[in-house]
Amino acid sequence: MQQVLERQIPLFYLADDLLKGLHKSLLFQLGNALKRLDQQVMGAYRRRRFTFSACKAAIIAFK
């Protein structure tokens, strides 16, 4: 029984290390994806706001 436990403990630590590495890489990828999505959405919002402001300014100027 002790030999089985002695073999399983290093395997547990190996699995734990692998899962921690996987977890960190997934969070890193998710963070990058969320950052890109935020940049795309906010970029579109800013462009729309700028276009609307420019159109509004042009309408006011031609009145």
Shape summary: rod-shaped
Tell me the total number of β-strands.
0
Helix content: over 70%
User: How do the helices and strands follow one another from N- to C-terminus?
Assistant: H
Please, how many domains? 1
Fraction of residues in β-strands: under 5%
Give the rounded overall mean pLDDT.
70
In angstroms, what is the radius of gyration?
27 Å
What class do helices, strands and sheet pairing give?
Answer: mainly alpha
Quick one: biggest sheet?
A: none
Q: Any low-confidence stretches, pLDDT <50, length ≥5?
A: none
Distance between the termini: 91 Å
Count of helices?
Answer: 1
List the helices and strands and how they pair.
Layout: H1 2-62
Characterization of this structure:
With 63 residues, this protein is an all-alpha fold. It has one domain (1-63). It contains 1 helix and no strands. It has one helix spanning 2-62. The protein is rod-shaped. The chain starts with a helix and ends with a helix. The mean pLDDT is 70.
Keywords:
63 residues, mainly alpha, 1 helix
Kindly summarize this structure in a few lines.
The chain has about 60 residues and is an all-alpha fold. Helix content is about 95%, strand content about 0%.
